[in-house]
Predict the structure.
Amino acid sequence: MDISDTWQHKGLRKKLTEEVRRKGVASEKVLDAINKVPRHLFMDSGFVKFSYRDQAFPIGAAQTISQPFTVACQTELLEVQPHQKILEVGTGSGYQAAVLLELGARVYTIERQKELFLSVQSLLPKIGYNPRFFYGDGYQGLPTYAPFDRIIVTAGAAEIPESLINQLKIGGRMVVPVGSSNNQHMKVVIKNEDGSIETTNHGNFVFVPMIKGVSH
Ligand code: SAH
């Protein structure tokens, strides 16, 4: 496998980063991370030439690599600090996990599709990204490793998963798209000092659905 990152890739990535900035992402740290992650190495071979378009693309198992603007928005809303322990639900291509790693976080990522879990687990370390990979149902989270400073859900949930709220630290933050199968509201969930929950809304997005159970 060719894992080179050429000047041409870097040039296209810089343009993509500026496009994401124009669309409204302001955090320099997040924009830097988008500018660093070689998205062409996370794409399905049939779509590599479109790697630096600001669009979602198929990655196999009927799933998608998220649109860079969406990844940047969710990451900005997450307010990541270095060394924080983050749970990502929906590993998919691993692109979002790589962006979180560029911000210095410790990433625990869980995927329900066995085929994607296996391929991303072998690919990411080869290109320098080392989250901890889990095969399982994100609705259950990772109780053994809880609590988390941050939780990011990258599939559209019908409602905010209760078990994930339980796995959030006091003062922690979760970013989760909630809604129907073709339209979700981006929600930020904050767990206050007294354990109460506050939820705010941050625009409409479209994700593949969050599905219960695992697929073999
Ligand atoms: N973060 C990914 C986006 C992938 S799309 C990226 O950057 O490419 C969403 C992913 O969530 C899909 O791979 C899908 O299989 C997965 N998913 C859906 N429901 C899930 C669940 N209950 N637990 C874990 N993963 C889930």
Summary: DSSP finds six helices and nine strands in the chain. The longest helix spans residues 7-22. Residues 63-66, 89-90, 92-93, 95-96, 110-113, 116, 137-139, 154-155, 208, 210-212 surround S-adenosyl-L-homocysteine (CB under 6 Å). The CA atoms of residues 175 and 188 lie 5 Å apart.
